[in-house]
Design goal:
alpha+beta; 8 helices; globular; Beta-lactamase
Protein backbone atom coordinates (compact mmCIF):
# COMPACT_ATOMS: atom_id res chain seq x y z
CA UNK A 1 0.00 0.00 0.00
CA UNK A 2 2.81 2.27 0.86
CA UNK A 3 4.33 1.73 -2.60
CA UNK A 4 1.06 2.67 -4.35
CA UNK A 5 0.85 5.92 -2.37
CA UNK A 6 4.41 6.82 -3.31
CA UNK A 7 3.72 6.05 -7.07
CA UNK A 8 0.60 8.27 -7.10
CA UNK A 9 2.41 11.14 -5.41
CA UNK A 10 5.18 10.93 -8.05
CA UNK A 11 2.67 11.27 -10.89
CA UNK A 12 1.00 14.31 -9.29
CA UNK A 13 4.33 16.08 -8.79
CA UNK A 14 5.39 15.40 -12.40
CA UNK A 15 2.12 16.75 -13.84
CA UNK A 16 2.33 19.99 -11.85
CA UNK A 17 5.90 20.56 -13.00
CA UNK A 18 5.05 20.20 -16.69
CA UNK A 19 2.09 22.55 -16.40
CA UNK A 20 4.11 25.30 -14.78
CA UNK A 21 6.85 25.16 -17.33
CA UNK A 22 6.45 27.05 -20.65
CA UNK A 23 8.42 26.24 -23.71
CA UNK A 24 9.39 29.32 -25.70
CA UNK A 25 9.54 28.46 -29.37
CA UNK A 26 11.33 31.21 -31.18
CA UNK A 27 9.24 33.02 -33.74
CA UNK A 28 10.80 32.64 -37.16
CA UNK A 29 12.25 35.83 -38.49
CA UNK A 30 10.89 37.19 -41.76
CA UNK A 31 13.75 37.30 -44.20
CA UNK A 32 13.69 40.26 -46.58
CA UNK A 33 14.70 39.22 -50.09
CA UNK A 34 16.14 41.83 -52.44
CA UNK A 35 13.79 42.94 -55.28
CA UNK A 36 14.83 41.52 -58.67
CA UNK A 37 14.43 43.31 -62.05
CA UNK A 38 11.55 42.16 -64.29
CA UNK A 39 12.78 39.71 -66.91
CA UNK A 40 11.31 40.03 -70.42
CA UNK A 41 11.10 36.69 -72.21
CA UNK A 42 11.25 37.17 -75.98
CA UNK A 43 8.49 35.55 -78.03
CA UNK A 44 9.51 32.47 -79.99
CA UNK A 45 8.85 32.91 -83.69
CA UNK A 46 9.21 30.64 -86.69
CA UNK A 47 12.52 30.94 -88.51
CA UNK A 48 12.27 33.03 -91.67
CA UNK A 49 11.37 31.10 -94.80
CA UNK A 50 14.18 30.99 -97.27
CA UNK A 51 13.08 30.56 -100.86
CA UNK A 52 15.35 28.29 -102.79
CA UNK A 53 16.40 29.81 -106.08
CA UNK A 54 14.80 28.30 -109.14
CA UNK A 55 17.23 26.47 -111.34
CA UNK A 56 18.06 28.42 -114.45
CA UNK A 57 16.45 27.13 -117.63
CA UNK A 58 18.69 25.07 -119.89
CA UNK A 59 20.60 26.59 -122.76
CA UNK A 60 19.03 25.19 -125.90
CA UNK A 61 19.75 25.56 -129.59
CA UNK A 62 16.56 27.36 -130.62
CA UNK A 63 15.85 30.85 -131.91
CA UNK A 64 12.79 31.20 -129.71
CA UNK A 65 10.94 28.98 -127.26
CA UNK A 66 8.43 28.79 -124.48
CA UNK A 67 7.14 26.49 -121.75
CA UNK A 68 3.52 27.13 -120.76
CA UNK A 69 1.72 25.64 -117.75
CA UNK A 70 -1.81 24.66 -118.85
CA UNK A 71 -2.95 23.80 -115.31
CA UNK A 72 -2.12 27.20 -113.85
CA UNK A 73 -2.48 29.16 -117.10
CA UNK A 74 0.89 30.84 -116.90
CA UNK A 75 4.11 31.13 -118.85
CA UNK A 76 6.95 29.32 -117.09
CA UNK A 77 9.69 30.36 -119.48
CA UNK A 78 9.81 32.27 -122.73
CA UNK A 79 12.64 33.37 -125.01
CA UNK A 80 12.18 35.86 -127.86
CA UNK A 81 8.41 35.51 -127.63
CA UNK A 82 7.71 38.53 -129.79
CA UNK A 83 10.33 37.97 -132.46
CA UNK A 84 8.87 37.36 -135.90
CA UNK A 85 9.60 33.93 -137.34
CA UNK A 86 8.41 31.81 -140.25
CA UNK A 87 5.45 29.64 -139.14
CA UNK A 88 6.14 26.56 -141.31
CA UNK A 89 3.63 23.75 -140.89
CA UNK A 90 2.48 24.95 -137.48
CA UNK A 91 0.21 27.01 -139.75
CA UNK A 92 -1.82 23.86 -140.40
CA UNK A 93 -3.26 24.03 -136.89
CA UNK A 94 -4.90 27.31 -137.94
CA UNK A 95 -6.18 25.70 -141.15
CA UNK A 96 -7.58 22.80 -139.11
CA UNK A 97 -9.35 25.16 -136.68
CA UNK A 98 -11.03 26.96 -139.58
CA UNK A 99 -12.09 23.66 -141.11
CA UNK A 100 -13.83 22.73 -137.87
CA UNK A 101 -15.48 26.14 -137.59
CA UNK A 102 -17.28 25.51 -140.91
CA UNK A 103 -17.55 21.70 -141.15
CA UNK A 104 -18.36 18.82 -138.83
CA UNK A 105 -15.97 15.88 -138.84
CA UNK A 106 -18.48 13.53 -140.46
CA UNK A 107 -19.06 15.76 -143.48
CA UNK A 108 -17.05 15.24 -146.65
CA UNK A 109 -14.61 17.12 -148.87
CA UNK A 110 -13.61 16.33 -152.44
CA UNK A 111 -10.13 17.13 -153.68
CA UNK A 112 -9.79 19.10 -156.90
CA UNK A 113 -7.05 20.65 -158.98
CA UNK A 114 -6.11 22.86 -156.02
CA UNK A 115 -3.90 20.00 -154.83
CA UNK A 116 -1.47 21.01 -157.59
CA UNK A 117 -1.05 24.47 -156.05
CA UNK A 118 1.50 23.07 -153.61
CA UNK A 119 5.05 24.36 -153.83
CA UNK A 120 8.08 22.23 -154.81
CA UNK A 121 9.31 19.74 -152.21
CA UNK A 122 6.10 20.05 -150.23
CA UNK A 123 5.12 17.34 -147.78
CA UNK A 124 2.07 15.49 -149.12
CA UNK A 125 -0.67 13.14 -147.97
CA UNK A 126 -1.21 12.06 -151.59
CA UNK A 127 -4.81 13.03 -152.26
CA UNK A 128 -5.69 13.59 -155.92
CA UNK A 129 -8.52 15.29 -157.82
CA UNK A 130 -11.70 13.29 -157.38
CA UNK A 131 -10.73 11.73 -154.04
CA UNK A 132 -13.61 12.16 -151.63
CA UNK A 133 -13.03 11.70 -147.91
CA UNK A 134 -14.50 12.72 -144.58
CA UNK A 135 -13.40 15.94 -142.96
CA UNK A 136 -11.96 13.86 -140.11
CA UNK A 137 -9.81 11.88 -142.54
CA UNK A 138 -8.56 14.91 -144.44
CA UNK A 139 -7.58 16.44 -141.09
CA UNK A 140 -5.54 13.32 -140.37
CA UNK A 141 -3.79 13.81 -143.70
CA UNK A 142 -3.22 17.48 -142.87
CA UNK A 143 -1.94 17.11 -139.32
CA UNK A 144 -0.09 13.80 -138.99
CA UNK A 145 1.19 13.38 -142.55
CA UNK A 146 1.47 17.19 -142.79
CA UNK A 147 -0.02 17.20 -146.26
CA UNK A 148 0.17 20.53 -148.06
CA UNK A 149 -2.25 19.10 -150.63
CA UNK A 150 -4.80 18.57 -147.84
CA UNK A 151 -4.29 22.17 -146.73
CA UNK A 152 -5.22 23.48 -150.18
CA UNK A 153 -8.31 21.27 -150.45
CA UNK A 154 -9.49 22.42 -147.04
CA UNK A 155 -8.84 26.05 -148.01
CA UNK A 156 -10.96 25.81 -151.14
CA UNK A 157 -13.82 23.93 -149.48
CA UNK A 158 -13.97 26.26 -146.46
CA UNK A 159 -13.82 29.43 -148.57
CA UNK A 160 -16.64 28.30 -150.85
CA UNK A 161 -18.84 27.44 -147.88
CA UNK A 162 -17.98 30.60 -145.95
CA UNK A 163 -18.72 32.73 -148.99
CA UNK A 164 -21.69 30.61 -150.10
CA UNK A 165 -20.24 30.48 -153.61
CA UNK A 166 -19.54 27.00 -154.90
CA UNK A 167 -18.55 28.52 -158.23
CA UNK A 168 -15.47 30.32 -156.88
CA UNK A 169 -12.33 29.44 -158.80
CA UNK A 170 -9.50 27.74 -156.96
CA UNK A 171 -7.48 30.96 -156.84
CA UNK A 172 -10.42 33.01 -155.64
CA UNK A 173 -11.19 30.46 -152.95
CA UNK A 174 -7.58 30.25 -151.76
CA UNK A 175 -7.29 34.03 -151.59
CA UNK A 176 -10.53 34.24 -149.63
CA UNK A 177 -9.35 31.54 -147.25
CA UNK A 178 -6.20 33.53 -146.53
CA UNK A 179 -8.39 36.49 -145.59
CA UNK A 180 -10.35 34.19 -143.28
CA UNK A 181 -7.11 32.91 -141.76
CA UNK A 182 -5.88 36.36 -140.82
CA UNK A 183 -9.27 37.44 -139.47
CA UNK A 184 -9.52 34.29 -137.38
CA UNK A 185 -5.97 34.72 -136.11
CA UNK A 186 -6.85 38.15 -134.73
CA UNK A 187 -10.04 36.81 -133.15
CA UNK A 188 -8.17 34.15 -131.18
CA UNK A 189 -5.54 36.57 -129.89
CA UNK A 190 -2.73 36.32 -132.44
CA UNK A 191 -1.56 39.93 -132.37
CA UNK A 192 1.46 39.98 -134.67
CA UNK A 193 1.08 37.30 -137.32
CA UNK A 194 0.37 37.29 -141.02
CA UNK A 195 -0.46 34.34 -143.25
CA UNK A 196 -0.22 34.06 -147.02
CA UNK A 197 -0.85 30.33 -147.49
CA UNK A 198 -2.89 27.55 -145.86
CA UNK A 199 0.15 25.29 -145.42
CA UNK A 200 2.80 27.66 -144.03
CA UNK A 201 5.20 27.33 -146.95
CA UNK A 202 7.87 30.05 -146.81
CA UNK A 203 6.79 33.47 -148.05
CA UNK A 204 8.41 36.86 -147.58
CA UNK A 205 5.23 38.35 -146.10
CA UNK A 206 4.31 35.40 -143.88
CA UNK A 207 5.33 35.49 -140.23
CA UNK A 208 4.25 34.65 -136.71
CA UNK A 209 5.60 35.06 -133.17
CA UNK A 210 6.05 32.44 -130.47
CA UNK A 211 3.56 34.38 -128.38
CA UNK A 212 1.00 33.98 -131.16
CA UNK A 213 1.85 30.29 -131.56
CA UNK A 214 0.74 29.91 -127.94
CA UNK A 215 -2.59 31.59 -128.73
CA UNK A 216 -3.04 29.26 -131.69
CA UNK A 217 -2.19 26.18 -129.63
CA UNK A 218 -4.69 27.14 -126.92
CA UNK A 219 -7.38 27.58 -129.55
CA UNK A 220 -6.53 24.29 -131.28
CA UNK A 221 -6.81 22.46 -127.96
CA UNK A 222 -10.46 23.51 -127.74
CA UNK A 223 -11.19 21.09 -130.58
CA UNK A 224 -11.16 17.51 -129.33
CA UNK A 225 -10.68 16.23 -132.89
CA UNK A 226 -7.40 18.14 -133.23
CA UNK A 227 -6.10 16.81 -129.92
CA UNK A 228 -7.05 13.27 -130.90
CA UNK A 229 -5.49 13.52 -134.37
CA UNK A 230 -2.21 15.14 -133.34
CA UNK A 231 -1.72 12.48 -130.67
CA UNK A 232 -2.12 9.64 -133.18
CA UNK A 233 0.97 7.87 -134.52
CA UNK A 234 -0.58 6.12 -137.50
CA UNK A 235 -3.92 6.23 -139.33
CA UNK A 236 -5.29 3.81 -141.91
CA UNK A 237 -7.98 5.59 -143.93
CA UNK A 238 -10.52 4.45 -146.47
CA UNK A 239 -11.72 7.29 -148.67
CA UNK A 240 -15.40 7.61 -149.51
CA UNK A 241 -14.40 6.93 -153.11
CA UNK A 242 -12.77 3.66 -152.09
CA UNK A 243 -9.06 4.52 -152.04
CA UNK A 244 -7.03 3.40 -149.02
CA UNK A 245 -3.94 4.91 -147.47
CA UNK A 246 -1.90 4.82 -144.26
CA UNK A 247 -0.54 8.05 -142.83
CA UNK A 248 2.20 8.21 -140.20
CA UNK A 249 2.85 11.06 -137.81
CA UNK A 250 6.02 13.08 -138.34
CA UNK A 251 6.32 13.59 -134.55
CA UNK A 252 9.05 11.27 -133.20
CA UNK A 253 7.85 11.74 -129.63
CA UNK A 254 4.87 9.52 -130.52
CA UNK A 255 6.89 6.68 -132.04
CA UNK A 256 7.81 3.87 -129.59
CA UNK A 257 10.65 2.89 -131.93
CA UNK A 258 12.23 6.36 -131.71
CA UNK A 259 14.92 7.31 -129.21
CA UNK A 260 12.79 10.39 -128.52
CA UNK A 261 9.61 8.50 -127.66
CA UNK A 262 7.68 9.76 -124.64
CA UNK A 263 4.46 8.19 -123.35
CA UNK A 264 3.47 11.59 -121.97
CA UNK A 265 3.53 13.52 -125.25
CA UNK A 266 0.04 13.70 -126.77
CA UNK A 267 0.57 16.11 -129.72
CA UNK A 268 0.79 18.64 -131.38
CA UNK A 269 2.69 19.66 -134.59
CA UNK A 270 6.04 19.59 -136.34
CA UNK A 271 7.27 22.16 -138.84
CA UNK A 272 10.27 22.63 -141.08
CA UNK A 273 11.15 25.11 -143.83
CA UNK A 274 14.27 26.90 -144.98
CA UNK A 275 13.24 30.16 -143.28
CA UNK A 276 11.83 28.57 -140.15
CA UNK A 277 14.49 25.95 -139.55
CA UNK A 278 13.00 23.04 -137.67
CA UNK A 279 10.31 23.76 -135.12
CA UNK A 280 8.11 21.73 -132.82
CA UNK A 281 5.01 22.45 -130.77
CA UNK A 282 4.57 19.79 -128.09
CA UNK A 283 1.70 18.93 -125.76
CA UNK A 284 2.92 17.07 -122.65
CA UNK A 285 0.86 15.62 -119.78
CA UNK A 286 2.23 13.16 -117.20
CA UNK A 287 -0.67 13.52 -114.75
CA UNK A 288 1.16 16.06 -112.60
CA UNK A 289 2.29 18.49 -115.26
CA UNK A 290 0.27 19.66 -118.27
CA UNK A 291 2.53 21.67 -120.53
CA UNK A 292 2.84 23.24 -123.94
CA UNK A 293 6.41 23.50 -125.20
CA UNK A 294 7.51 25.29 -128.37
CA UNK A 295 10.92 25.53 -130.00
CA UNK A 296 11.68 27.18 -133.34
CA UNK A 297 14.72 27.95 -135.43
CA UNK A 298 16.49 24.72 -134.51
CA UNK A 299 19.31 23.53 -136.72
CA UNK A 300 18.19 19.97 -137.35
CA UNK A 301 15.32 17.54 -136.95
CA UNK A 302 17.07 15.94 -133.99
CA UNK A 303 17.92 19.19 -132.23
CA UNK A 304 14.28 20.24 -131.89
CA UNK A 305 13.54 17.06 -129.94
CA UNK A 306 16.63 17.43 -127.78
CA UNK A 307 15.73 21.04 -126.99
CA UNK A 308 12.16 20.08 -126.14
CA UNK A 309 13.34 17.23 -123.89
CA UNK A 310 15.65 19.61 -122.03
CA UNK A 311 12.84 22.10 -121.45
CA UNK A 312 10.47 19.39 -120.22
CA UNK A 313 13.03 17.94 -117.80
CA UNK A 314 13.76 21.41 -116.44
CA UNK A 315 10.08 22.31 -116.05
CA UNK A 316 9.05 19.17 -114.14
CA UNK A 317 11.97 18.86 -111.73
Amino acid sequence: MKKVIIYLLSIIILTVSCTSCSVNVPTPQTTSHPTTEEITIPQITEPPTVEMPTLAPPTITAKCSFVYDLKNHKMIEGVNLQERIAPASITKLLTACLALEYFSTDESMTAGNEVFKVQPNSSLCFILPGHKLTVLDILYGLLIQSGNDAAYTIAVEVARRANSQASMTDDEAINHFIILMNEYARQIGMKDSQFTSPDGYDSENQFVTAEDILALALQAKKFSAISMITGTLEKYSVFLTGETITWRNTNHFLDPQSIFYSPYVNGMKTGSTLNAGTCLLTSYNDGNFDLLIFVAGCESDESRYVATQQLIQWAIQ
